[in-house]
Specification:
- The chain is mainly α and 186 residues long.
- It is built from five helices and two strands; from the N terminus they run αββαααα.
- It has a two-stranded antiparallel sheet with strand order 1-2.
- Strand 1 and strand 2 form a beta hairpin.
- The longest helix is centred in the middle third of the chain and has 38 residues.
- It is flat, with a radius of gyration of 29 Å.
- The model has no long low-confidence stretch (mean pLDDT 84).
Length: 186
């Protein structure tokens, strides 16, 4: 009797294991199917019942279309990054009991521009500036400060992304198909 009960218990354990393994395989297959459907690229147009994708378009149209799409994505990304920065500032302002402008100032206060940096920029771009140093010195300093502050914002957002506290969910564009690249006329 003890042997039968041991055998019965063993068969139940095997059955549960097989059922569990089958369930895991089934869920993995469903997940793969859902991921494949999520990454499926939608057609751009349909002509007489045939779906047309970017790679199907004539090269003279596909190239400019892709370029326009890239421009739109860059603008969307910039807006989403601005929204993310707003949330960073809002959190800081709330935690410290200050305004958004003050939070922005405090987060970016460490960024400064030295006279050496302004001089080096002028020396490097003197031919294209075509103005005397004293005329453009303040503009150069403002530009360099703006660049440094933008880099600091980008670093803060990148750190948040690395920690999993920020996700910008804009899907990347697929690369331009080779046949859609139109050689430049020359």
């Amino acid at each position: 009797m003890a042997e039968q009960s041991g055998e019965h218990l063993r068969s139940q354990v095997v059955f549960v294991f097989v059922a569990f393994a089958f369930g895991m395989m089934l869920s993995a297959l469903l997940l793969q199917k859902n991921q494949a459907q999520a990454t499926k690229i939608s057609p751009l147009l349909t002509f007489k019942g045939s779906d047309k994708f970017l790679e199907d378009l004539p090269p003279a149209i596909a190239g400019p279309y892709h370029e326009l799409d890239q421009t739109l994505r860059r603008k969307q990304l910039a807006l989403l990054e601005a929204a993310a920065w707003h949330y960073v500032l809002s959190e800081q302002a709330q935690q410290q009991g200050i305004s958004l402008a003050e939070a922005n100032t405090r987060l970016l206060a460490s960024e400064t521009v030295t006279d050496e940096e302004v001089n080096a920029f002028y020396a490097q771009h003197q031919a294209t500036l075509k103005r005397a140093f004293f005329e453009v010195r303040h503009e150069i300093a403002a530009l360099l400060l703006q660049q440094k502050q933008q880099a600091r914002r980008q670093q803060i957002l990148a750190d948040l992304q690395a920690r999993g506290d920020l996700g910008i969910l804009l899907e990347p564009l697929p690369p331009l198909p080779p046949k859609a690249i139109v050689p430049s006329e020359g």
